[in-house]
Write the structure tokens for this entry.
Amino acid sequence: MDQKANNTKGFVLTAVTINSERNIVPVDITGIVSDIQFFEHLDKPYITGNIVISDSVRLYDRLDIQGAEEVIIEMQMNLDSPKVRRKFYITKIAAAQKTNETTEMIALTIVDDWFFRSTVKNVNKVFTGSPDSIIEQIAEQYLDLEVVREGSFVFQNEMKVIVPNLTPLQAIMWIKQRATTDDGMPFYVYNDFITNRLNISDVVTLTSQVPYNRRKPFLYGVTDSLVIDEKQYAYLPIKAYKIKDVQSMLSLVDKGLVSSTHSFFHTSHNKIRNHSFNIQKDIFDRIELDRSKHYKFSEDFKIDDENITKLGSRKISRISSSGPFEIGATANYKSYSEESDPSDHVRKITSRAMRHFLIKDPISIRVDGKAFIRGDYNMTIGNCVRLLFLANRPNTTDGGTKLDMLKSGDYVVYSSKHTFSLSRYDVDLECVKISDFTNEGSMLT
Amino acid sequence: MTYLDGVPNPELDYYGDDARWFIGTVININDPLQLGRCQVRIFGVHPDRTSDLANSDLPWAQTISPITEGGSSGIGTNLGIQPLALVYGIFLDGKNSQLPLVIGSMPKYERDPLRLREDTTGLVADQVQRSNITQSHNEDKNFVPAPIIDNELLVGSDNNERAFNYFLTSEGGGFTPAQAAGIIGNFCVESFANLRGGEISPTQEALNGDGSYGVAQWNPADAAGNRLGQLRNFAANNNLPYNSLYAQLTFTTFELYSKSWLGLRELKASRTPAEASKAFELRFERPLKTAARSEERIAFAEENYRKLK
């Protein structure tokens, strides 16, 4: 892939090198790379990817890839922009296939440097502090990784945990599950392709962002220009979109995320804290999700004349603690699942429900990747974007709406796939909706 | 493809669906809440090194009483479990492994050195060869070599930790962590721990050639009561090599409890590592004032207390 000659694709692949202790010098494979893909996810603190190479120089034969080689990838938006440089490791050869007498296509699966280093380490140690500070300790001690915290404070404080033989990233994800905001909103720990750091952010912070593309939203529809109320608006086209496996309310009900009864048992205190969870009452009526009016639950969902938010469809019983670090009136630490006040357990339920509700109706879009490789700023996961969809049958005769008001709105990017090929650079964004709009004007200002 | 499948799930619908059992060693039974709990170091879940998990950071495990006890209204007898008991239990929170519950103790090989010698005949020869164990201070070749004795009878990743854990047990005298650290602080100075990065040694000979030996540098001079000779007799009577840490620790406890002038009362009254170090130095070690190095003993005591408590 000769990248340096021009930049019509929206990116320049500066270097792809494979290195291992077994090689005397790094092997530059930039010229034979045919495709690269990266995957980012809001719920995963690492990046995975694929590299496809068109091997006509006996690379496969001579390199003898065994599945732990280092791959350095360098790219930039154009020759004047900052470079993005990430280190990956090959985890396996996914496939190898002959295409002609002299060429073989080889697909390599890669994971980022942190994940690889995490996999070869074991955490079996005691940690104290708030969940986010423990995450920082693990990231620093085991991965030498910068952690950036954004938004709300973590509600849970001074806990003591003994990490039971997990990799550093597993330990981070395990601790993350115990972190909520004061309102019980969940936290996400993620890594993006551009910045070399671990991000911690809560759902309220993520959903409160102003879309970075509000002046030039992504638009799906066959149109030369977006004109509404005789005013022309700039936009970036959505090449394709897909909606699949969404609005699975029954699945949420089945998990007890709509209505359920919860019991938390403290075995040494012999106390049980019970709570009847009702998603409307406990979350949507109670918590101000900023400008989002998307989260709502219709009063019309009834079974046998009873609203399903009141049916208590699941009974969930957990042991919250046995007071393993309780030694008297003072100097006590909470254990992993323990709360100082029994009523604080409600945050666990809220957090779990919110995590699932956030991804209840995702939409996947494909857009041109130009401008996504900015070297200094993450444009994908964890960001808010505005998406507009033209209505299937625009009501233009009486000045009515041109936009599909159900699909159009503001979304948080939940996962993404960057695809760099010989001819173009596309980004697939899986987005979750965070706000509805009542009129087109508010979406275009 | 997901790479983090091994993350324990804290969100079980029913607590009993993810049980995980364990075997562990009881480290401490002095439950400050007096609920019959014990601190257990769990094999395979808790690290062996106290630098990664200090004894004081071990979780307090609830214990199961037999149904012949009352179980409510404070009715029932005191639990009889002792430090170093091998116990079996389950985690109440499954793979999260934070809430241990001890169900019972497991009768085990009770560390009789005589039987140990009989049972490890082949092992001994093999390990002597592999570890190049010096026998110069082990005149009776019938004894199980000291490193094997110490590995079998003491708990810890190095000699300081083994000694510390030993002195906390009822067999070791039931000392507090501060008192145990005070003793070890003295052993560090006596056995020239500076030469080994701070670790005490039961095979240390005196650098001045006066024949003193071991972690406490027991002196062979008749004028000093030939305490080294007494150590050797004590060890021989108990079928132990006197160059083993275990023999020297048990002899230390024996001396403290059988000879009141060696300062058991003062040691037991001490509350801090520094107080304990001073008490042990003045009454048990009795060094010449010119070679006392009291501050160094206290520094070692406090350092070991921080690491091991």
